[in-house]
Amino acid sequence: MICCLNPRCRKPINPDDVQVCQSCGETLTTLLRGRYRAVQPLGQGGFGRTYLALDQDRLNTRCVVKQFSPQMQGTKSLEKAVSLFNQEAVRLDELGEHPQIPTLLAYFEQDHYLYLVQQFVEGQNLLQELRQNGLFSELQIREILNDVLPVLRFIHQRQVIHRDITPTNILRRQGDNRLVLIDFGVAKHLTANEEGMQGGTKIGTEGYSPIEQFRSGKAYPASDIYSLGATCLHLLTATKPENLFDPLRGRWFWREHLIQRGTNVSDQLAGILARMMQDLVSDRYQYVDEVMRDLHADYFRPSLSAPPTTAVPPAVGKPPRGTSQKTSTSPSSTPRPPDLDRPFTSKPPTSQPSNLRSSSARPAHAEPSDSKPSADSKPPASVPSSSQPAAPRSTPARSPAKSWTKGWNCVHTLTGHSSWVTCVALSPTTPMVASSGLDDTVRIWNRETGQSLFTLAGHTRAVNAIAISPHGKTLVSGSDDYTIKTWNLVTGALSGTLTGHSRDVNAVTISLDGQLLISGGEDRTIKLWQMGTGTLLRTLFGVAGMIKSLATSPDGRLVVSGGLDNKIKLWSLQTGEQVQAWTGHHNSVNAVAVTPNSQVIVSGSKDKTIKVWNLQTGALLNTLSDHTRDVNTVAISPDEKTIFSGSSDTTIKLWDLNTGKLTATLSNHTDTVNAIAISADGKTFVSGSSDKTVKVWQLFD
To answer: pLDDT for 74-93, tens place per residue?
Structure first.
């Protein structure tokens, strides 16, 4: 079928073999921009139509095409509508690196219409789920908050306010069950009333948008927090928020509504929602981190007349600090959030032509270091000398001095990445730490001093995975740009670029003898490369889902993979054949690790569990359950006694490998923990997080 692109056509669907629309008589456009074929209308508003389309350059992959053809009168209204449609394209382009925001694929003009093409997200929105399944429980509301709040933090740090968060603008993606925030354009809410265009645009959805958006057209991070709270009320009660407020008394009565239905929620969650939805902007949570801290707190003291004191987060456009969750100030000292209508001053970092960026050239969104290095701080012998392009002279981000307690303590918080930290690796021969991020870079640090040494810049898209060779001289990195790069870890020079994957590279690992590099990615293949030469030795096929994680057995016989097919697979490094496939997880396998004696495999999954397997027999030895969200990373201590796990619930947990007993929970990160690496002596480990920090932990006896 083919769609007529006349926005006024009442029956736009036509057979493939016609050239003129059978309904309106308009000539049919077979392909937009020579590649996008509209096949079905998805919706229509004041700006025009949205179509489901097929991208012929990508094997007919489905995408969404938004057509701009506003039905409004007046030059000012039209100019504002065009401006906002352009802004939506710009925002999607800026924010598309986040996996829970649709990616902008194209933006162009054709036949006197503007078109915006973006990633298609298959799934239901939360309003559809409510109608299909009934009221949401408190646990489901907490899961929604845990999933959506980090997305809001991401966009707020980029000085974007969504302004239209509703149950219909949050989709549950069918493939991985994650929530996706959609509709970053406001043109569909415009009216032809030119008075509404004066000053800020008065815009929003009744019942979900706070009063400041309708009165003055202004919006703050707290405005989105209000809208998310209203969305939660609707899902909890199956009643529109405007029907849950008593204007005479100026109070919400949604809890009474729940009790009448024979249900209720905890005082903690009720207090959080109440503060999210205060009328006065200053009485609400000002930033997402404040909500997350109360949501994860062991207790909560609601006070609607005097909101609980919380740490004052940085201004919009600055990343949150992750070093302390206990510091508090008076609510009156909380700075007023900046107005979205004020011109933005912070810009994303620009790439430099050199592969090696000086650590002193801090990205625009990077957080300043917490303290200055001591006078006698020196880099390890293996780092570049002062004659190299990047001298290690930047300020280390070290935690304030404190008296250490027995157990694991965070000794350094390393800041410098301008986006999520995706992976970390430790050099086996020097005190170097490497970290990769969605900012397209790999950063090198001294873990003993917290010193930033240099930055490796060569990838054109996000870096997902890194590994350091056993001799400590080579680093490899895998990226969304479909390539693997090898770097000289002593000089920082780019040694080579390996091409062969046809999609994002998600995982890399190096065999214990340093001879093999193994990579896996979204193209559902595992590739074996010769270290040193970069020669592709073998491609392993037969993977049902994309690869998320790889680990080699220390005895050099096997590579273990985990991915979206929910299985753990074992492959022979000698023959390339699949020798085992284990099923036990109920969702994608995000992480795998093998004990030093090659006897046990540990896996972490999106199903929130960690499983322990006998590598020889495939028997499931234990299932560890305490994380409340996805388990993204697992690591095993060199003495084979402890499992380390990191999760989207922002925690790191330590488990006894033999008994499965939870021995410790570390909660210093303020966002998803994506990676953990342990030193050879087992006394230090590092963690990387979506809060943009790397933390160095030491064991104190």
So the answer is: 555 556 556 666 666 776 77
